[in-house]
Amino acid sequence: METLLAFLTVFTHPELLLLVGVGTFAGVYVGAIPGLSVTMAVSILISFTFSWDVHPAIALMIGIYMGGVYGGSRTAILLNIPGAPSAIATALDGYPMAQRGEAGTAIGVTTVMSFFGGFIGIAVLAVAAPFVSDFALKFQPRDYMLLAVLGILLVGSLSTGSLLKGIFAGALGIAIGAVGRDPLTFTERFTFDLKLMEGGISFIAVMIGMFGVSEALMQLHHVNKAAVRQKISRIVPSFSTIRKYLPLSLQTSSIGVIIGALPGTGGDIAALMAYDHAKRVTKSPEVPFGKGAMEGLVAPETANNAAVGGAFIPMMTLGIPGDAVTAIMIGALFIHGLNPGPMLMIDQPDMFWFIVGALVMANFFMLLFGLTGIKLFTRIVEMPRAVLIPLIMLLSIVGAYAVNNSISDVYWMLGFGVFGYFMRHYGYPLGPVILGVILSRLLDDNWRRAIISEREDLGRFFAGLFSSPLSTILFLSVVLIFVSQTPLWTRAKARLARKAA
Amino acid sequence: MTTPVPEHHDGTSDATPGGYENDRRPGELGFALFMLAASLGLLWSAYDISGFEALSAPGAIPMATTLAMVITALIIALRTARLPLIRGEGFVKDILPGTVVVMTLFLIAYALLLRPLGFLPTSALFLVAAVKLLSGRGWAFTLTVSLGSLVAIWLIFRIVFSVLMPAGIVPEAEFIQMFRNLLGGKA
Amino acid sequence: MKHVVFGAVSALALGLGAAQAQDYPTKEIQGIIQWGAGGSTDTVMRAVTPHAEEVLGGTVVMQNMTGAVGAIALNYVADAEADGYTVLMGAENPMLYKIMGLGDKDYSEFTPINILARGTPLLVANSDAPFNDYAEMVEYVKAHPGEVRFGATGPGGLPSVITAMINTIEGKLDYISVPYDGDGPALTALQGGAIDVMPAVLGAAIEGVRAGNMKPLAVFDVAPNSKLPDVPAVTSFNDGYNTYLPWGPFFGVFVPNGTPDDVVAKLSAAYSEGAKNPDFVELMDNRGFTLMGISGDEANQFLTKWQQGTAWLLQDAGETKASPEEFGIARPAN
Fold first, then answer.
1. pLDDT, mean of residues A56-66
2. Does a structural domain hold residue B115?
3. How many domains does the structure of chain B reveal?
4. Which residues, in sequence order, are CB contacts of C331 under 8 Å at separation 6+?
5. Do A133 and A314 form a contact (C-beta atoms < 8 A)?
6. Which of residues 237-276 of C touch A (CB under 8 A)?
7. Which residues 94-123 of B have a C-beta within 8 angstroms of A?
8. Which residues of B touch C7 (CB under 8 A)?
9. Residue C200 forms beta bridges with which residues?
10. How do beta strands C86-91 and C29-33 pair?
């Protein structure tokens, strides 16, 4: 009974309801603007809500979080510029749809599917949080490393053109992620003895440069071409459409929850993995992937919103953040006099249920704000390019600066913008670069932890892979996916098929 | 309704990559060679981090990845060199037209002026110049649109998100404090 | 310089008066937090600053500036105008930059506004570890060389100082040191069994200990901590630790040297008043931090003593890149 009351706190207090709504609304826009991140918004809210009670403060933060994760898809679909890292995969199929004038449909499906994914994430949080967090704790450094390798194999599905160029781009990304002082030993890497390089290259700066500025430069080729008129008459997808993608979205939501719950991985990796998964399991999409396949929208968007609920799992059960945003929320709880940790669930279970309630509410608001106000967004895209392009460039600059308040990030962003422009012209895919940067530390740090734990002994390291079922499964998936991408496999499969026939 | 036929096959997104499978674009070989040279440089730099000290050394993964870059860059360069140059495309016309060069120069100028001049003046100059150049419309339109959007961006980033862009010659902080004092009355 | 002139001229023009220090603050103060959002430095600073703002009658805009173990933020503030409008909110690490080869600046280039609080190190182990207190652990490590995995956070971090103490006092132990980028991730790994032992600041581990997810081996202090009264002080196992303890990481607010005295005085007053706020005191107490609230000469003395002790401890344990002597850090007189 008390549980129910705590869960309903949000619904019965109009001011909390309002705050979740305001937060979600703001979040959609924060998420949509590249460079304004949810992390940043939530950490500013800590000071802003300092004198408030804990409930309204958390309600507002949760709204921003939910809305922000969803909002990244907007600009990805309309402008081919992901507003947040977790929307990179969304651009792959969302933008081609917008180019055909189907942005309305794309946004509609994205919104409903984000809602669905968010709901699955919250449901798992509410029902199975302790189990999932126990499972997440089981991940050893070698498992994280295998997960990173699994992620790197996504290069195959992200590079539509030449696989070789994709591999090159992915490796470049990993190298970019290594720039600066190594976080484990503080050794300088790729810094060329320059102070400017010591802090490393912000991954957001790379992303904004490659997707924002290079896209803007690309669009300069058609400054005078009229923008595509968007059909926005039918936005809410039909029930049969939703039912069709239900099985896929269940699978990708599960990917989202697990990846979100793992400390150290978040919605960005989840979305990319889900995209890859969709590409694998969808045998015959109506529209090919990369040309506007609906599956390519459903997968990343369900996964990144499911990751929100996932990220709260270790936070609520153990006081361990599932991602950057939950890390700040732990700080907020602490400032408001609570002691986030494993005892929180036992001492103050009502806090847990309050958060679940607020998440449910935020998810509904996301659906509401997602399906309305699309006109305004499409207007932005229909603006004359002569105005839109300079604005995108300026926003990219401010956004890159805002990440870490540093001018050098602006220089990096511009550099990668121009570099990305040439990469696009010559058929080098950009997605793998970002993938590499995201995974760089996960791979590097955990490889080193794993091999140090085995005293630099490769034999012991490989033996370790088979000492736990989790490692074994991950290792086998890595091997399987790797083999399935080599030409050998295709030939073997063809031969098998012939024999069977 | 336009169908997304990418004119000049220019790679508007990862989904529709630029380049051709059987032809070489102008400048593509140069880019491939540049990538190869850069990869070699990075490999050397990676070796320089810690050499072959240990499997767990900070330089281990960087060396592995830069080696992968060198190998792929080499194959890409060789393949590109063998392809025939595409007909009907020119470097200036299709890869680096005048507007792109000018806008890139604008961006470089922006980066250089940002610190000494400050965010507001630099951005105003940039927006006005860029919008005027690209749209070719009258001054009234240019000034309204660019200054209006600059104010909006400034309000969002500076006031709401308190991102302190370099103030330069405009005493932003003093202005804001003055408004705060006017509104709130000083404690 | 140009900035100051323009600023002053416009201030005059606006009729705000020119006497800068007296009216300080006439604009918002930029507070640079050396560590990322959600970390303990971040949380402490965001918790105390609103109280200080009230006393100060101004606004402090806090920004996280991460990278290169905090050196980016340190250099940024050191290079900023010494006018009290750029403030560094940092932790103890810069005191070891020089000897660790991480930078050429430390807090000697700064005037301490307030050293807010000090943390107490706590040695914790995985709850399934085959030892239950500090003495058993040392024995176990000696009996099983090269098997026990200790969490670490890089050269100069709290674990490196604690293990240096252990190695100095118990003789060199053979264990595996697994690096993590912060005590949060390391404590997560400890609960998952990826590492066996972790020296961490008490506040970070306390909730896990209370829940029984990890077991405390010893408090690295001269007396047990009131937050965990059942955990013995490490000095009760070995007297040798009295030489080095009490020791702990600290949080402080700093401005570059050359900041006008009255500005420093105003800021110091604001922060020491703010740190006395009961909400803040309770919050720090809950996390097991010892409030210090010192400034001026007292703070300088504390910094010097801290640096000498720690630098030479690490030097003697062979963990430094350069000798403290090179930077004029005197060996503490024991």
1. 93
2. yes
3. 2
4. C308, C312, C324, C325
5. yes
6. none
7. 95, 97, 99-100, 103-104, 107-108, 110-111, 114-115, 119, 123
8. 171, 174
9. C122
10. parallel
And the tokens for A494? 């063809």
Give pTM, 2 decimals. 0.86
| Residue closest to C228 by CA, chosen among C205, C249, C261 | C205
Predicted confidence (pLDDT) at residue C8 exceeds the cutoff of 50: no
CA-based torsion, B121, B124, B127, B133: positive or negative:
negative
B77/B156 same-domain check: no
The pLDDT value recorded for residue C15 is 40
Whether B52 and B121 share a structural domain:
no
pLDDT > 90? residue B127: yes
Query: What CATH code would you report for C121-243?
Result: 3.40.190.10
Whether B9 shows a pLDDT value over 70: the answer reads no
Please report how the helices A374-382 and A103-137 are oriented relative to each other, as an axis angle in degrees rounded to 10: 110
Predicted-complex ipTM score: 0.88
Residue tagged 């200080």 (tokens) = C52
Q: Which residues constitute the domain of residue B74?
A: 7-91
Same domain? For B119 and B177 the reply is yes
CA C98 to chain centre: 16
Same domain, B86 and B50: yes
Q: Which residues of A touch C39 (CB under 8 A)?
A: 327, 331
The reported pLDDT for the residue numbered B76 is: 93
Average pLDDT score, chain A: 87
Whether residue B180 sits in one domain with residue B103 = yes
A193-211 confidence digits (pLDDT tens): 887 788 788 888 898 898 8
d(CA C199, CA C153) in angstroms, rounded, equals 10
Q: Please state the rounded mean pLDDT for residues A459-486.
A: 87
User: The tokens 């997304």 sit on which residue?
Assistant: B4
**pLDDT above 90 for C215:** yes
Residues B52-61 have pLDDT tens digits of 888 888 899 9
Confidence tier at C18 by pLDDT (50, 70, 90) = very low
pLDDT of residue C19: 42
At C54-103, the pLDDT tens digits run 888 888 888 888 777 788 888 889 888 888 889 999 888 888 888 888 88
Nearest residue, CB atoms, B177 vs list C3, C26, C30: C26
Same fold across C2-118+249-327 and C121-243: yes
Average pLDDT over residues A321-348: 83
Residue B1 lies in a domain: no
CB burial class (10 A; 0-12, 13-18, 19+) of residue A309? Answer: buried
Tokens of A320: 């361990």
What residues of B are in contact with residue A410 (Cβ under 8 Å)? 111, 114
Q: What percent of chain A has pLDDT over 90?
A: 33
* Burial letters C244-268, b for 16+ CB under 10 A, else e: bbbbbbbbbbbbbeebeeebbebbb
Say whether both B178 and B105 belong to one domain. yes
Residue B124 placed within a domain = yes
The answer to whether the Cβ–Cβ distance between A291 and B66 falls below 8 Å is: no
The DSSP result for C220-269, as a single string, is SSSS--TTSTTSPBGGGT-GGGGGT-S---EEEEEEETT--HHHHHHHHH
Q: Is the pLDDT of residue A155 over 50?
A: yes
Q: Which CATH number fits domain C2-118+249-327: 3.40.50.720, 3.40.50.1000, 3.40.190.150, 3.90.1150.10?
A: 3.40.190.150
Asked if C54 and B187 come within 8 Å (Cβ–Cβ), the reply is yes
**Most B CBs within 10 Å, among A196, A387, A392, to test the B interface:** A387
Q: Residue C178: closest CA among chain A residues belongs to which residue?
A: A449
- Three-point CA angle A55, A345, A353, nearest 5°: 45
Residue spans of the domains in chain C: they are 2-118+249-327, 121-243
Pairing outcome for strands C60-64 and C110-118: unpaired
Instruction: Answer with the one of B36, B66, B91 that is the final residue of a domain.
Output: B91
